[in-house]
Design brief:
Length: 230
Amino acid sequence: MLQIEGLSKSFLLHRVSRRVQGCQDIAFSIEPGQFVGITGRSGSGKSTILRCIWRTNLPERGRILYDSARFGMLDLAQATQRQMLYLRAYELGYVSQFLNALPRQTAYDIVLKSALETHGTADRPRAERETERMLRHFDLDENLWELYPRTFSGGEKLRLNIAAAMIKHPRLLLLDEPTASLDNASKLKVRTLIEQLKAEGTTMLGIFHDLEFMEGLCDHEFNMQEGMMV
């Protein structure tokens, strides 16, 4: 499903004329339906890998070979913007630690938008049912559904982010610290959905600090130190 070869990315800090290494010579592969976890200290380069796959970071070197349902084997490091927009809408999912939403978009609309991308506008009733089911699963009170998420707590924003990503049932799901600010009850709900997606064949790549959460979930685990896998 995904094969990464020699992936490297650094960042230039213009104010101090200094280059910082994000990740270097990363190489690994994920088979369809597998869940691969990456662990490591903060600043070790874990999130850089996910952002290169999602293409918010443009890799400097290396290849990210993804077996797309529409495009076939595609190097995401060289993919066009049009191709990436399609993949983000229909094949890839990304759970960030931070919620990125339009200013006047309600919590309900954020999740519904993802559901409509999956089921299509012609089946809006089904998308609405799935949206309500997902919001309830993550204990987002109905009084919050029509509010703008800028008023939410950090945990509520993260739960909303997870709901919007998982409702799409993507072929490849990227998880960036999906339990970072959640209580134990919410962590269990995330784990339940991850187990469900895995049973359905979703391929997943996640980065974690919570090693206990990963226990029994991951097929393979890699550890990063100073931008490199060890």
